[in-house]
Write a structure and sequence with these properties.
This protein is of the alpha/beta class. The chain has nine helices and seven strands, in the order αααβαβαβαβαβαββα. Helices cover about 40% and strands about 20% of the residues. Strand 6 and strand 7 form a beta hairpin. The N and C termini lie far apart (about 50 Å). The model has no long low-confidence stretch (mean pLDDT about 95).
């Protein structure tokens, strides 16, 4: 089963224009097997069937490489990584990336740490913390070339969580579903306050799913008052 899955992963990603070696396909399959096994005792994902996981987790995570050049070395942070999406697939396909994955749920970050060790992913780490707290740490604030997030939150809230980590000239990439014009309009003031430039929208269809990646380049430094204390960005989004 594993060999067949690896072959399917390699062929399917290649059909999407995503270069994937046999070794990388094997790593993605190993990740899937670890995910499903751990999911028996921990609520990591509702997407458990192989084909669904390939389409909705792996392929979706990796479509960023069709939008941004990820081939070179870069410091990346994945906010609200959960079970490791998109961070782990991105690290596997683009091994030069230095990726930090964070989530407020400790058990999930424990699992991600297990995956990093099992797959020997050098230059990847998992941290159990809240974005609002870590963004106050000088070792992380405005230190990243790229911040990514597939977390379920409105764009205004996500921007407050993510843009403080991005260095000037760097990029925040938010994975979204379908048409987000109204959400984008509501977030424009927040993005400006946080130092972001005018968002660029990349829309595409993936397995009949309407998907959007919002690209926000960091234009100026984020004022020290942001992010606000834990909980406020989601309860009272900037406007």
């Amino acid at each position: 089963m594993s060999t067949d899955h690896s072959r399917i992963i390699e062929e399917e990603l290649s059909s999407l224009g995503i270069d994937c070696s046999s070794r990388q396909a094997e790593q993605l399959n190993h990740y899937y097997e670890l995910l499903i096994e751990k999911n028996k005792t921990m609520n990591l994902t509702r997407i458990v069937e192989f084909r669904d996981a390939l389409e909705k987790h792996f392929a979706d995570s990796l479509m960023l490489g069709r939008v941004i050049d990820l081939g070179g070395p870069a410091k990346v942070i994945d906010i609200g990584s959960g079970a490791g999406f998109p961070g782990i697939p991105l690290k596997i396909l683009y091994p030069k990336l230095q990726i930090t994955m964070i989530d407020s749920v400790g058990k999930k970050m424990g699992f991600v740490s297990e995956v990093i060790e099992a797959l020997h992913l050098e230059g990847a780490q998992a941290k159990h913390c809240r974005a609002e707290d870590l963004a106050r740490d000088a070792a992380y604030r405005e230190q990243f070339d790229l911040c990514v997030s597939r977390a379920v939150a409105n764009l205004s809230t996500l921007s407050e969580y993510c843009l403080p980590f991005v260095k000037k000239g760097g990029v925040f990439a938010a994975y979204k579903s379908g048409d987000i014009e109204e959400e984008l309009d509501s977030a424009k003031t927040a993005i400006q306050k946080l130092g972001g430039d005018t968002p660029q929208i990349r829309q595409y269809t993936l397995y009949e799913m309407g998907r959007t990646i919002v690209i926000i380049r960091k234009k100026t430094g984020t004022p020290r008052i942001y992010p606000r204390k834990a909980g406020l960005p989601s309860k009272e989004p900037l406007s």
